[in-house]
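Case study B.
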Amino acid sequence: MRLGVFPLPLILLPGGKTRLRIFEPRYIRLVKQAVTGEGFALSSYLPEAENNSSELAAWVEIVDFSILEDGLLSIDVQAQSMVKLTQFELENDGLRFASAKQVKHWASQTSSDKTKLLAQSLSRFFSKIPEYESLYPSPKYDEPAWVCARLVELLPLSIERKLQFAQPESFERCVNFLHTVINGEKNSDLFQFQTRNYN
Amino acid sequence: MTPEQSQQLKQWLSDIALKRDKKAFANIFKSFAPKIKGFGMKQLKSESAANDLLQDTMSIVWRKSHLYDADKGAATTWIYTIMRNLSFDMLRKAQTQKEDSLSDDIWPIAEVVDDSGEVFSDHLMSQQIAQYLDSLPEAQKQVVQGVYFQEMTQEQLATQLEIPLGTVKSRLRLALNKLKQQIEENS
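Model:
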């Protein structure tokens, strides 16, 4: 399928949402086409890359919209799956289109001690930062892939780093990565969790 | 400036910090834009550089408002300090004109100990974003900043995890090193 492309300095993984304010004519056109058709591709903006866009992108659906006080259109988009973009074409108004082929992201995963801890942290982040919480009315804390994907989106990491976790085989690496950063474990060894009792 | 005005500025900063209040941010922006731009024109001698200075200063205000301590000084002092530091950075950069030697990791290796310097410790990250912002028309910059800021800063992460910023940085470094190893082992 051909999708309109919106490159932004962020990454969305399947299930991820973000809110965008739209006012440039080319992106208003993108939104118009997206609501009647097949959504659009939210790619990661890469200044050095061809078309300034990552090849891997989130195929997003517009799930909500509103008109802001200043008259601007605000839309909430949610990533359905990852797509690989090829054959970019730039149209006259500056909007890019590309051929999009759906690609796999992480398979569904079973919980482990590590992912349970990560889910706890994510739920703490959400409860303390209302903006995040409001985006996800029904958070899936019991789905490790969902939890890890949201954490990747939130963490202060470069886009290039985050894109590594958009690869289908990266789940295990991602869990270990988050385990080190969020859970603060030096070794990915559960032995570390056991508390000693000398009484 | 009257005490009421000064109090109002403090209130706006606190609203930004606690509620991520965009309206308060817009008010701060409006109050400081002319002066910062004027300062930028004078120091940097170019309108686009002055605009960059304004943009960068305001983006730090938005991200770091939680670090502002109303007991330590006026809001104006805090914001103008950020502005001046950024302006020095820009001047230094313009003077050397060297290619940015960004390391593979985006975090500076040296831990920043100085409290006031902490505000600028994710400078390299800002550069990456600034590069993107430069390519956009003015109005869109603000939108994109709004988008970008949904990501946590290192400081926010430290606050949320209730650990020191230095620990966040070293954890991130450690995690990145391990990631690299894993990728190398698998390839």
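The radius of gyration of chain B is 18 Å. The remaining cases will be described in the next quarterly update.
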